[in-house]
Design brief:
The chain has about 280 residues and is mainly α. It has one domain. Helices cover about 55% and strands about 10% of the residues. The chain has a three-stranded antiparallel β-sheet with strand order 1-2-3. It has a two-stranded antiparallel sheet with strand order 4-5. A hairpin with a 2-residue loop joins strand 2 and strand 3. The radius of gyration is 20 Å and the shape is elongated. The C terminus is likely disordered.
Length: about 280
C-alpha cells in the first residue's frame, strides 16, 4: 500500500465524481518516470511530499463543497417555507463550509504550483513557484510549445468573469480568496429568480452576479480538477519521453490539447419539487 492509498482509501469518492483521482497516475509512475533523470534525491522527495499534500487539499476542497450542499439542503428542509431566513447557526454552518471550500481550493492550487513549475517550466527542475498566480504568469509568458494545452486553457478561462481561475486567482481585481480572508465574508442568501419561480433558493453573489449555489460549487470544483488532470497528463507525457540524463524534451502531440471529464451532472436542483440531489 502506497502513501497515497492512505489518503484516498479503497473507495475514494473523487473517482465517482471526476472519473479518477488527481495525481494518482503521476504518483504511481513516479519512480519509472524520474529514475536517473535530472532531478536529485532531495528534489524528488520534495515533489513526492508536495503531491501527497496537494491530494489532501484537493480532497478537503471537494468535501467542503459537498458539505456546503448538504448544509443548504438541511436548511431548506428544516425551514420548509416560501421565504427562508439565513440566520443564526444555519448561516454560520453554510458560510463555514463554503468559505472552507474556497480556501482549500486555492491552497491546493498553490501547492500544485510547485509541482507544475518544477516539472513543466524551464529550466526544468529548477523553476520553483509556490504561488499559482506566479506559476500562471510564467505559463502565459512561455513560448514553450509543450505548454500550449495549459496556456490555452488559462487564456480561455481569463475571458470568463465567473471562471474558477478569475474567482480564485483574481487576474483582474482581487481574488475571492483574498476578499474573504482580509476584507469580508462570502455573500450568500436566498433569492427569487426567473428560473426558481415563486420560491426562494440559495445563491452566491459575486460582484453583481447572482449564482445558484450548486452552479457556483460545480464551476469551481470541476474547473480546478480539470486543470489538475490536464497538468498531470502533460507532466507524465513530457517526462516519460525524456531520455535518461538528458535535458532535451520532445514536442507533445496535438491530442494532448484537451482532456475530457465525465460530463455526468453531479449536482442537480429541481425547483418544482424543492428536491436537492447530490
Amino acid at each position: 500500500m502506497s502513501k497515497l492509498d492512505l489518503i484516498y482509501g479503497p473507495d475514494c469518492i473523487l473517482s465517482q465524481f471526476y472519473g479518477k483521482e488527481p495525481l494518482r497516475t503521476l504518483y504511481e509512475k513516479f519512480d519509472d518516470i524520474f529514475e536517473n533523470k535530472i532531478l536529485n534525491e532531495e528534489k524528488l522527495e520534495s515533489i513526492d511530499n508536495k503531491i501527497l499534500n496537494t491530494c489532501r487539499k484537493l480532497y478537503m476542497f471537494h468535501m467542503a463543497g459537498l458539505m456546503s450542499l448538504k448544509t443548504e439542503k438541511e436548511i431548506s428542509i428544516k425551514q420548509n417555507r416560501e421565504c427562508i431566513f439565513l440566520i443564526w447557526e444555519d448561516e454560520i454552518n453554510l458560510l463555514y463550509n463554503l468559505e472552507s471550500m474556497i480556501l482549500f481550493s486555492r491552497s491546493a492550487l498553490d501547492l500544485g504550483a510547485y509541482i507544475f513549475s518544477i516539472l513543466l517550466l524551464e529550466p526544468y527542475g529548477n523553476c520553483r513557484k509556490d504561488s499559482f498566480n506566479d506559476f500562471s504568469k510564467e505559463l502565459l509568458k512561455s513560448e514553450n510549445q509543450n505548454l500550449k494545452p495549459l496556456k490555452e486553457k488559462l487564456q480561455e478561462l481569463e475571458k470568463d468573469n465567473l471562471s474558477w481561475y478569475r474567482l480564485l486567482c483574481g487576474t483582474r481585481g482581487r481574488a475571492l480568496r483574498d476578499k474573504i480572508s482580509h476584507q469580508t465574508i462570502l455573500a450568500v442568501d436566498y433569492f427569487k429568480t426567473e428560473s426558481s419561480g415563486d420560491k426562494e433558493y440559495c445563491h452566491v453573489v459575486v460582484d453583481k452576479s447572482v449564482i445558484p449555489i450548486e452552479d457556483f460549487i460545480k464551476n469551481i470544483s470541476f474547473g480546478v480538477f480539470e486543470f489538475f488532470f490536464l497538468a498531470e497528463e502533460l507532466i507524465i507525457k513530457t517526462w516519460s519521453d525524456v531520455e535518461k540524463n538528458s535535458w532535451a524534451l520532445p514536442d507533445l502531440p496535438n491530442s494532448m490539447s484537451r482532456i475530457e471529464i465525465n460530463p455526468t451532472i453531479l449536482y442537480e436542483v429541481k425547483y418544482e419539487s424543492n428536491e436537492f440531489k447530490i
